[in-house]
Design goal:
The protein is 49% helix and 14% strand. By secondary structure, it is of the alpha+beta class. A hairpin with a 6-residue loop joins strand 2 and strand 3. The chain is globular, with a radius of gyration of 20 Å.
Length: 117
């Protein structure tokens, strides 16, 4: 009697090195973070969460993968030992966040002017 074996094939296969390269490239493209927006002094945590949600919705409606522009990370504060979450953003993701700001100040106005160009 002949024994048959089922072999599973993945439809998408890439070498580990290629995955590592893609992750490193994606990380290098996400050079902005939540603290860049919080340093402007106009966004609270709640405003940030709302702007993030709206920005991700824009990506979803436009058929853009949000993972390319937004990545949640965890940061440890060595002084207090606390761990908090932050978001890394690409330039386009950061621009979407700026567009979603509810309040306006001089720094936001300058950034919006650059975006209009």
């Amino acid at each position: 009697m002949e024994i048959l074996h089922v072999v599973h094939y993945s439809g998408y296969s890439t070498p580990t090195g290629l995955n590592d390269f893609e992750e490193a490239l994606g990380y290098s493209m996400r050079c902005y973070s939540m603290r860049h927006l919080l340093l402007t002094g106009t966004m609270s945590q709640e405003d940030f969460a709302e702007a993030l949600q709206k920005s991700m919705q824009v990506c979803a409606f436009a058929g853009i993968d949000t993972k390319a522009h937004f990545k949640k990370i965890y940061v440890s504060d060595s002084k207090t030992g606390a761990i908090y979450s932050d978001w890394l953003m690409s330039k386009k993701g950061f621009n979407l966040m700026i567009m979603q700001c509810q309040s306006l100040n001089e720094q936001i106005a300058h950034w919006l002017w650059k975006l209009a160009d």
